[in-house]
Amino acid sequence: METEKKGQHKHPVLRSCIKWSLYASISIWLGVTAFDQIEKHINVSFWGHIGAEKERQLSCIKDMYYMFVTKKITDYSTHEWQRDKLYTFRSQEGALYKKGTIFVKYLRGLPGDTVEINDKYEIMVNGKVVASGFPIFERHGIRIPEKFIFKEVIPPHKYYMLGDTEHSYDSRYWGYVDEEDIIGRAYGFFAVGK
User: Do 30 and 112 fall within a single domain?
Assistant: First the structure.
């Protein structure tokens, strides 16, 4: 009996190392697996990397959140689109940002809605004014092209996205967002200056 007990405690440090290595391996595996599952459904973006003019610390959303957590859309055909809520999407190639830049804007127009910009530069969706003017053009002395005055029905799988500050580079400048470029519904956290 005594010999057995002595044998059991012959290498306590080695036994402890093996035990903690096993715990660490299991914890790492569980962490990686959990992160992989979370990453399939959640995206985190930080202010300054979401289409804001970061060099001048300008934001396209009045509530200047430091972080946006996006619930990813896994099935576009069953997703319940929420008008006037924030969505995260990847930009197309444009004059100010490279393709794939992450933007956060309000969803103002859905497929089948009528979007109109009149000669007073009021941006309307279904007859309701949702924004006005082209502040970025005005700031840079750019004449507003005539093609920007129009009225049409938003095509299937296209969405009209707008910010709510004069710094917002949005659908009034570059048109619709393709459904496949929308990552998901965004939620703001840690408002700056509040």
Answer: no
The reply to whether 7 and 81 lie within a common domain is no
In whole angstroms, what is the distance from residue 77 CA to residue 64 CA?
A: 31
If asked whether residues 34 and 48 sit together in one domain, one would say no
Residue 138 and residue 81 share a domain:
yes
Show pLDDT as tens, one digit a residue, over the chain (194 residues): 444 455 555 666 667 766 666 666 665 555 444 444 444 455 555 444 444 444 344 466 666 555 567 788 888 889 999 999 989 898 887 667 788 888 889 999 999 999 999 999 999 999 999 999 999 888 889 898 899 999 999 999 999 999 888 888 899 998 999 999 999 888 876 555 44
Q: How many CB atoms lie within 10 A of CB 1?
A: 5
Overall number of domains in the chain: 2
Query: Quick one: 107 exposed, middle or buried, by C-beta within 10 A (0-12, 13-18, 19+)?
Result: buried
Q: What is the helix (H) or strand (E) element at residue 7, kind and residue range?
A: helix 2-8
The DSSP string of 27-83 is: HHHHHHHHHHHHHTTEEEEETTSSS-BGGGTB-SSSS-EEEEEEEE-S-TTT----T
The residue range of the domain holding 24 is 2-39
* pLDDT tens-digit readout, 75-87: 888 999 999 998 9
